[in-house]
Amino acid sequence: MYVRRVELTTFRSYERAVVDLDPGVTVLVGQNGMGKTNLIEALGYVATLDSHRVATDAPLVKAGASSAVIRCAIVHDGRELLVELEIVPGKANRARLNRSPVRRSREILGALRMVLFAPEDLELVRGDPSERRRYLDDLLVARQPRYAGVRADYDRVVKQRNALLRTAYLTRKVGGTRGQDLSTLAVWDQHLAHHGAELLAGRIELVAALGPHLTKAYDAVAAGRASATIAYASRLGDGLAPDRPALEAALLASLAERRQNEIERGVTLVGPHRDDLTLALGDLPAKGYASHGESWSFALALRLAAYDLLRTDGIEPVLVLDDVFAELDSGRRERLAALVADAAQLLVTCAVPEDVPAALQGARYDVGPGTVTRV
After folding, report:
1. What is the bridge-based pairing of β-strands 79-87 and 228-233?
2. Mean pLDDT across the stretch 34-61?
3. What number of CA atoms fall less than 13 Å from residue 101's CA on the CB side?
4. SS3 state at 163
5. Which of the two ends of the chain, N or C, has the fewest CB atoms closer than 10 A to its terminal CB?
6. Any idea of the CA torsion for 328, 331, 334, 340, to the nearest 10 degrees?
7. What single DSSP character describes residue 106?
8. Which one, of 235, 233, 215, lies nearest residue 225 by Cα?
9. Other C-beta atoms within 10 Å of 81: how many?
């Protein structure tokens, strides 16, 4: 799989840009703030319908414009697919595949499989559990796009259930009764347990498949200095099996057990939206114990493990290294270059061309204010 062309209209800093790309290595060179990451972000948005930099769509639209458009021509197994996305802040995005509208924008997921490593990925190791849950769910959807619907259904149920609990909480605060307010809570419990079990089982299966790839990737990047492991940490307990009926029953039991706490706090306390990943180096958790270099290596290993897993599944994703080499010492640079040199398409961004190892010196583009020019 590779991106043959990307076109941007009023996206971020670009009024209009058209970039033709080839398979193999492409290096995007430009000073900070020139728009290298904006171009990568657009591709990432096509792959995940989300930005790795911001939580809302408004910053993606160039100042003064009402919408932004991304067009992406993707070649896979000799066939080309055109994906078009219109981003309108505050409204549902509109999408087309080969110029035909789709009902939901998530129907384009799977057209472009991409693994992106960026400086923000340090938060996978040092940040909040939400960063690690997002990593898992994005990879889950990349492997099996149907999980985009599962995740959307689960998020909708949690939102509705939280609204119900919040209303009951506020009613109690002003001295009202709670029985009528919570009359439909049991129905939402069933929905949460059903969709939650499906999402939870997918995550558990994914972590089991990902583990060996992570250990291998960290060993390669860090030259065998420690062993990296990953485990799924659920509020339901350790060692869960991906048994959907059993998980659904366990979620229902936990919801019943925590019911009073939820009513008192006005929020859903049970479900995969409260879970985390346990990342460890040897016998110690990576968060809080890993050095800066070890944290970078772990974050990089998580992305490389995702890349290797997709390739094992028969998917050849586009690999992107966004301003990565400037953060790595020379040894890690060379080891990383050796690991990714055979990618079907590798996009590398940098401010200084000398930061990129010689093994990855492919096609070069200079990125200036609102422009991308092949050298």
Report:
1. unpaired
2. 93
3. 4
4. helix
5. C
6. -60
7. G
8. 215
9. 16
β-pairing verdict for 2-11 and 14-20: antiparallel
**How far is the C-alpha of 323 from the C-alpha of 15, rounded, in Å?**
23
Task: Report how far residue 255's alpha carbon sits from residue 186's, in angstroms, rounded to the nearest whole number.
Answer: 10
Q: What is the mean pLDDT of residues 126-155?
A: 95
Judge: domain 1-113+316-375, CATH 3.40.50.300.
yes
Integer Cα distance of 260 and 197 in angstroms: 22
Give residue limits of the domains in the chain: 1-113+316-375
The b-or-e profile of 213-247 (16+ CB within 10 A means b, else e) is: bbbbbbbbbbeeebebbbebebebeeebebeeeeb
CA pair distance 58, 67, nearest whole angstrom: 9
Burial 263-291 (b: 16+ CB within 10 A, else e): beebebbbbbbebbbebbbeeeebbeebe
Q: Rounded CA gap, 344 and 22, in Å?
A: 10
Distances in whole angstroms, Cα of residue 348 to Cα of each of 23, 340, 356, 359: 13, 11, 8, 12
**Apex 201 CA angle, 200 and 202, nearest 5:** 90
Q: What is the pLDDT of residues 301-358, one digit of tens each?
A: 999 999 999 999 998 999 999 988 887 888 888 888 988 989 999 999 999 888 889 8
Q: Residue 116 in contact with residue 52, Cβ under 8 Å?
A: yes
Q: Output the average pLDDT for the chain.
A: 92
116 touches 318 (CB < 8 A): no
The angle at the Cα of 80, spanning 74 to 81, to the nearest 5 degrees, equals: 65
Q: Is the dihedral of CA 187, 190, 196, 198 positive or negative?
A: negative
Instruction: Tokens for 16, please give them.
Output: 């209009």
What one-character DSSP code corresponds to residue 127? S
- Report residue 348 as tokens: 């590398």
Look up the pTM and report it. Answer: 0.91
| Alpha helices, H only, the chain | 36-48, 123-126, 129-143, 147-173, 185-221, 244-257, 259-265, 292-312, 330-340
Torsion of CA 232, 236, 241, 247, to 10 degrees: -130
Question: Which pLDDT tens digit goes with each residue over 195-238?
Answer: 999 999 999 999 999 999 999 999 988 877 789 999 999 999 98
